[in-house]
Write a structure and sequence with these properties.
463 residues; alpha+beta; Beta-Lactamase; Heat Shock Protein 90; 5-stranded antiparallel sheet; 8 helices; 48% helix
Length: 463
């Protein structure tokens, strides 16, 4: 029976919050629609009002011509001393009408009204021309203008009314709105296409960054070197910084692996030779070399842990808390040694507490082991330095000659072989401090006369 083949797990895409380009286009489309609607409504009302005002102005001219031509006859009735100029007043149902009404008098209408009449509110007084829309004629909406006048030689208040069909007026308004609608539609489409092009062009640098990253994967390049706009350049710089940081971590890992392999090679060779030769002290040799290998492994593990913790992010540790903890532990081992601590107890450094404990533990234990009985620790010895915090560890021992102060940091280097030790303490201190951007310097103590170790670590920015 053929073995069952398990299908490969499909690649799961990284979660995202949607397309940035789609967001930009939706926002642009929304604003375009809102602004065009507001602008279209405002422009429509302005143009419609303008057309109506022009129509009212023509009606006002006709009304003024009626008033200027009107006179009172011998019988007390009103008449025109000259005919009005517009021929439509003479054509029945032409769409242009006038009428004059007075209390206790018959209406005086235009021939265009034929058998109809305009409704007039006799009790209404309009000394100035008054215009309005009316639907008193079925199927023929009107624009009406009226005015109340008392003519010379008469005590009657005459109501002059002129009316015009709104068909032409409404047709003009319809044409204007049609032109506006098509114009705004074309304008909106053009603006949206421009927003699409702007979005596509504006997001072009991000596509170039993506292609550059793809080339890094396929061609083996390790940096994005293509020139990009100012807004995108910080992102590229951070990306290049991240790549450089990853490269450093990989190189440090390779270096650690190589150093560890080299450090274990000699003890393993000694054990192999002793086992091959059936040496009588094989057990002691294995124990001794195993201890050496364990110390080497501890040393490289300490470096690896420091590198890993440094990569996590911002670290924070109070120097006083770490120094107090180390002094409590070392005091039990060296009961006859006097330990003093002074300085700024609020000083904080950007390093993991475990790594700070390891550094101070090595330095303070060395000072107690090789000193003459006094150890003095100064916290924040250089308070004016805003970038780094200095920690001094002084003892009253023999010190280290100046020509040996560089070599003593090498792994396995020891000046006093009469006391137990591996020679890895200062090497670990230097390596871990440098991983965090710090340094270690050896000098002579002016107060105690022995060795002065100046440990510099970056100050913590956390509050």
């Amino acid at each position: 029976m053929a073995p069952e083949i398990t299908p490969a797990k499909p690649h799961t895409a990284a979660p995202h919050t949607g397309s940035l380009g789609r967001r930009m286009m939706l926002i642009a489309a929304g604003w375009i629609i809102i602004l065009l609607l507001l602008g279209g409504v405002a422009l429509d009302r302005s143009l419609t009002s303008l057309v109506e005002r022009n129509g009212d102005a023509q009606l006002a001219n006709m009304l003024n011509a009626m008033v200027a031509s009107a006179e009172i006859g011998p019988d007390g009735e009103i008449y025109f001393n000259r005919p009005l100029g517009d021929q439509r007043f003479l054509e029945p149902n032409s769409g242009l009408y006038w009428q004059i009404s007075g209390k206790d008098h018959e209406d005086f209408p235009s021939r265009s009204l034929w058998d109809r009449s305009l409704r007039v509110d006799a009790g209404h007084n309009d000394p100035q021309p008054h215009s309005y829309s009316s639907t008193q004629f079925a199927g023929e909406p009107l624009r009406v203008m009226e005015r109340s006048i008392i003519l010379p030689g008469s005590e009657t208040q005459w109501r002059f009314v002129v009316a015009e069909s709104r068909k032409e007026l409404d047709a003009q308004i319809f044409r204007i709105r049609s032109i506006l609608s098509w114009s705004f539609l074309v304008l909106g489409l053009g603006l949206f296409l421009m927003a699409v092009f702007q979005t596509w062009y504006g997001l072009g640098p991000l596509r170039r960054v993506r292609r550059a990253i793809q080339r890094m994967r396929t061609t083996g390049t390790n940096r994005v070197t293509e020139p990009l706009p100012l807004e995108v350049q910080p992102l590229v710089e951070e990306l290049n910084g991240l790549l450089a940081h990853t490269e450093r971590q990989a190189e440090e890992a390779r270096t650690h692996a190589g150093n560890l392999a080299h450090a274990l090679k000699t003890p393993l060779t000694v054990v192999m030779n002793a086992a091959t030769a059936h040496a009588p002290d094989l057990a002691e040799t294995v124990i001794r070399e195993a201890a050496v290998m364990r110390r080497q492994v501890d040393h490289h593990l300490a470096r690896a842990r420091a590198v890993g913790r440094r990569a996590v992010g911002l670290s924070h540790a109070l120097v006083a808390e770490s120094a107090d903890a180390v002094l409590r532990a070392v005091t039990r081992l060296y009961e006859k040694t006097r330990f003093d601590i002074d300085g700024n107890r609020d000083a904080a450094v950007s390093i993991e507490r475990q790594d700070l404990d390891e550094i101070l533990g090595n330095l303070i234990e060395n000072a107690a082991k090789y000193g003459g009985g006094s150890v003095f620790v100064t916290l924040d010895a250089a308070p004016d330095d805003k970038q780094a915090c200095e920690i001094w560890i002084e003892d009253d021992g023999m010190g280290i000659p100046e020509e040996e102060r560089v070599r003593i940091f090498d792994r396995g280097a020891r000046l006093d072989t009469g006391k137990p030790g591996t020679g890895l303490g200062l090497a670990i201190v230097r390596d871990v401090a440098e991983i965090y951007g710090g340094s270690v310097e050896l000098d002579e103590s002016e107060d105690l006369g022995g060795l002065l170790v100046k440990l510099r670590l970056p100050r913590s920015r956390q509050i």
